[in-house]
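User: Assemble these into one structure.

Assistant: Restating your components, then the assembled model:
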Amino acid sequence: MAASMGFAASSRLILKSMRPLMQLSKPTPRWCAVRNITRSNFLSGVEGTKLLMPALSPTMEEGTILKWLKQEGDAISAGDALCEIETDKATLTLDADDDAVLAKILVPEGTSGVKISSLIALLVPEGEDYKAVEIPADAAAPSPPAADVVSDGQIQGVSDTTQFSSMRHAVGKDSGVLSPAVRQLLDTHHLSATDISPSGPHGRLLKGDVLQFIQEGGAKKHPTVEAAVPEPTPLPVTQTQATAPPPAFVPPTTDIQQQATYTDIELTNIRKVIAKRLTESKRTTPHSYASTDCNMDRIMNIRKDLKKEGIKVSVNDFIIKAAAVALKELPDVNASWSGKEAQRISDIDISVAVATDKGLITPIVKNAIGKGLVEISENVKDLAARAREGKLQLHEFQGGSFSISNLGMFGISEFSAVINPPQACILAIGSARMTLSQSLKPQAMTTVMMSSDSRVVDDALAATFLQSFKKNMENPLRLGIL
Amino acid sequence: MFSLVCRRFGAISRNSHRVLPAAARRQYTNEQTEASFSVLDYKLHKLESGPSANVTVTRDDALKLYRQMQVIRRMETAAGNLYKSKAVRGFCHLYSGQEACAVGIKAAMREGDALITAYRAHGWAHLMGLSVAEILTELTGRRTGCAKGKGGSMHMYTKNFYGGNGIVGAQVPLGAGVATALKYSGSDNLCVALYGDGAANQGQIFEAYNIAKLWELPCVFVCENNKYGMGTAVERASASTDYYARGDYVPGIWVDGMDVLAVREATQFAADYCRSGKGPLVMEVETYRYSGHSMSDPGTSYRTRDEVQEIRQQRDPITNFRDRMTTSGLATAQELKEVDLGVRAEIDEGVERAKNEAELPASEAFTDIYSNTAPFMVRGCDPFTTHPSHTH
């Protein structure tokens, strides 16, 4: 206990122990008498008991001393509240353990960022001269936290604002503190607090100092940081602090991270389900692709003729019927994977992809083989309209044995679609484009690509199906007869 | 002539210390070897007579009691400070304010008597034989801890001390079991099973009362009523706050738990009662804890700071006992100050060791699983890694 007493202290000890003999002791102060503790000369010594910053919650790393509830020289009883400490969670009070006198407050109230187990005050036992307490040498000023500036050139994330503001320079007692306005200015202009001379009390860097520095041409403001999109926090470009030369010239934007502005779009339930199912389908189903070109001339002509009679059918309806007929001819394609083997489906229900603003829905044209073009057309129109309104019933879009997706109206020449499980195939129709036939006659050709589940429909079967489909498309007579 | 008169008076006082009040004695002698005090009256339940309200203590005993209480107080303060500097993690329940209960009960226990308590057990662990250093190093998880650093605050055991139990009220039936073993073995030792006011409403405690009374087990059930079960005041928790009467057919005594001599006297009475084969006894020691329930509880959200300070100033067991000792002449204040310094040194040494000693190596995580087995391979964190169960 008396280990660290110097010569002056030990001579004081001798004097103090001689006091009762010399009858020079002061009368016991009243507050001592209350506790009935006699002045013990045995304990004289000016070494103070250290009061360390406590971790008042298990996750606390540092805290703020809000207010000292006792002043230097106050007597403290065990259990008295000494100071209010603000932690990461709440404001709690620090209690004294023993009866003592608060000798010296080393960290004034209002100081934030006081690390736990750092020295905040000194106590002396009751009856001692608190003014004579020895202040440990290393407790002169709160040590500034290490400025961990990243110098490896990696791009920092936006959450590193605190990293920059922890850069402080210790000039005076209060010099470590940077106000938010100052920090903002330093960040946006990529300045270091050490470059600017402070003029505030206790060496504090003021906003005026930074503004003056900038006005005098200290640093060039970065042009793109204050881009059109307003940012809630200034971008801390700490690595340029370390790697860039003193701010006479700010290098162009290449190595500076652009704030990636993005908005999160909340997925609707439909899209979430679509996402989940398609991911599962693409991941688990072995897709294989086969495509062929179909000559659309005859279908176009029939369509024109029917229109003259007042019957409105679209090319899509022909496609649906053609696919249905092909499925009737090759029932093995109208199948699904049961998990172990291919299972033929007896009904030919074709799902037609409809784009709605909520996502892609595939309402089903049930028993497409048994319906004529007009009926198919009406079905599709009705289903599509209700799909866009979101009024489809469950059985109207769950099920089906074959899907058709037509992007011809968008001008897509060719595309491949993802199979809707548990179906085996999906036919992706492109747009009709004018080409020249072998005999240099203009013809309208459409590329259709079928994605098939290789476990159910292998390449040969897919090819055979597409052959049949092409024949149906190019010879619409087959649609009715077969 | 005058000196003869003084000596005569001194002789009278030495011989009739039981009759003369304490204040009168002080004038005549410097150091007493024995002193008597009166304590708060006990409340009895189904007992015709109880312990005496006039207690005597010898100087040596008084110094020992004082030192023990001071050790516990300082040790708990040190544990709290270690926790606040994050050297101790997890749970830490402090006994500050309740020292008189533990010290008083232990003083009336005999060698061979067993004890079991809940998790506010650091003070008890020390009194039952563990050193301060062993306890503090256990809290900080070092290899010299009483459980090699593997257990922590709620895992301290030693001979005849059954812990250290985390589940509220679970230790009371265990205590009845220990008492059964003691009775079965034919010894005249007893078991003291402690629980708190919060646990007093647990069902298994009443089961323990039943079997103890039925088989006349030598078990003293002690309820340490510190007025708050975690944060709930006893009035809000219990329909009947007469915890000494809760045993119903088991006789009970209420004791002022802030007075170490009263507790000692009552425990002596209870121990004699049990040892004479009359069966169990319930003892309620009314006490107070200064700190919160544990280190995560500041202790001020369900009671006022003034209340705590008032108890500290008026009913603190150590201060009151010290005053008694000095006013009755059993010891001087200077002597007690020296005891304090000795205690402080002992605790400081414990704290130093707790901070600086080494922890066990990681290979020790797989040892001490079973007692007294041949070495075998312990499965690690996955089925493919194994570790030896004995490192030496």
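Confidence is low (pLDDT under 50) at residues 22-29 of chain B.
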